[in-house]
Design the sequence.
C-alpha cells in the first residue's frame, strides 16, 4: 500500500508541476448560439505554456473570437472548463480580469478621447499609472506619442492598433489575448506589430493571438489550425509542415484557369488549388511522371512543374480535404 501511495503522490506532484507550466488550458469547450442551432466551437481542448507565443489560425467564422471571449470571461461556455493563469474562467473571473490584457478584433477604445486620455483612463481603471509601467509600453508608445493629443477616432489603422496594444498592456498583464490584431492594417504595420510581439514575449508575457493570415503562423512558437469550431491540428509550424503527407508540386502556365481545369480533370491528380498565378497540386503515386505529357496533349504548351515545400496554407487545405 505504501508503494501505491508513493506512486499516487508522485503522479499528483508531477501533475501540479505540469500545470504550473501552463498559462491557458481548455478542456472540452463547447459553445452554441441561437438556441443551440448554431455551433460556434465544439469539444475544444488545448493548452498554452507560460511565455509562449501561441497562434490560433483560421478563417472568419472558425470560432476564434468565441474562444477569446470565453477565456477573457466575457462569455460562458455551454460545456467544458477553462483556466487562465491558474484561475477558473467562471469561478475566478475577477482575478482573471486583473491579470490579462485583451485586444478585441474590433477597435473598441473611446473614439472621442485622445491617445493620452485613453491610456490614462485604462491605467486608472486598473489602479496604476502610465509612469509606473512605462517601460513595458515604451517601444510601442514612442511611435504614437507625437500624436498623443489626437482623438482615437482620427488615427490610422496602424496607430489605432498600437494604441489598443498599449491599453491592453498598461496594467502589466501576465497573459495577453490579441484577436486578429493585424486585420485591416498595411503590410508594414503588420510586420512592425509582430516585432513588438517578439519583444513582449522576451519579457515573459504569454501571448495568444488569432489571425486569418496563414503567413503569420510561422511567427508563432506553436499554432492551432481551426475551422468550423474544430481544431484540425496543433504543433509547431515546422512540424505541421513536416507532417504534409505527399510531395507537393507547383505548376505554372500562361493560361492559369485552363491549366487548373485540366489538372483537376487528370485522373492521377489527388488535389489541386490555385495559389496566386500558380497551382499547387499533389498526385497519386507515380502519376506526376505523365502529367506534363497529358497537359500538353490538352493544349497547355508552356507548362512548368517543380517540387516545392508546403506552406501552412497548403497544410490547412490538406487537413480540410481529409
Sequence:
Amino acid at each position: 500500500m505504501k508503494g501505491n501511495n508513493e506512486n499516487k503522490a508522485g503522479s499528483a506532484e508531477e501533475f501540479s508541476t505540469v500545470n504550473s507550466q501552463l498559462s491557458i488550458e481548455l478542456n472540452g469547450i463547447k459553445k452554441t448560439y441561437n438556441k443551440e442551432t448554431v455551433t460556434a466551437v465544439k469539444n475544444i481542448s488545448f493548452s498554452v505554456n507560460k511565455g509562449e507565443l501561441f497562434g490560433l489560425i483560421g478563417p472568419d467564422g472558425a470560432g476564434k473570437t468565441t474562444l477569446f471571449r470565453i477565456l477573457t470571461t466575457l462569455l460562458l461556455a455551454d460545456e467544458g472548463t477553462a483556466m487562465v493563469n491558474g484561475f477558473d474562467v467562471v469561478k475566478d473571473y475577477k482575478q482573471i480580469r486583473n491579470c490579462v490584457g485583451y485586444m478585441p478584433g474590433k477597435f473598441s477604445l473611446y473614439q472621442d478621447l485622445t491617445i493620452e486620455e485613453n491610456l490614462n483612463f485604462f491605467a486608472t481603471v486598473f489602479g496604476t499609472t502610465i509612469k509606473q509601467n512605462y517601460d513595458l509600453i515604451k517601444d510601442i508608445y514612442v511611435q504614437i506619442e507625437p500624436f498623443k493629443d489626437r482623438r482615437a477616432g482620427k488615427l490610422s489603422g496602424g496607430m489605432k492598433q498600437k494604441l489598443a496594444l498599449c491599453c491592453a498592456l498598461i496594467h502589466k498583464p501576465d497573459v495577453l489575448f490579441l484577436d486578429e490584431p493585424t486585420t485591416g492594417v498595411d503590410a508594414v504595420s503588420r510586420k512592425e506589430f509582430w516585432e513588438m510581439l517578439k519583444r513582449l514575449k522576451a519579457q515573459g508575457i504569454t501571448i495568444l493571438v488569432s489571425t486569418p493570415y496563414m503567413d503569420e503562423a510561422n511567427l508563432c512558437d506553436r499554432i492551432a489550425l481551426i475551422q468550423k469550431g474544430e481544431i484540425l491540428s496543433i504543433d509547431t509550424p515546422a512540424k505541421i509542415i513536416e507532417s504534409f503527407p505527399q510531395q507537393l508540386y507547383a505548376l505554372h502556365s500562361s493560361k492559369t484557369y485552363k491549366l487548373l481545369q485540366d489538372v483537376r480533370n487528370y485522373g492521377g491528380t489527388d488535389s489541386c488549388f490555385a495559389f496566386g498565378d500558380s497551382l499547387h497540386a499533389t498526385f497519386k503515386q507515380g502519376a506526376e511522371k505523365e502529367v506534363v505529357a497529358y497537359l500538353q496533349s490538352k493544349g497547355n504548351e508552356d507548362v512548368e512543374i517543380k517540387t516545392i515545400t508546403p506552406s501552412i496554407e497548403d497544410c490547412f487545405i490538406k487537413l480540410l480535404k481529409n
Observations:
- The chain is about 35% helix and 25% strand.
- The chain has two domains: 23-241, 245-310.
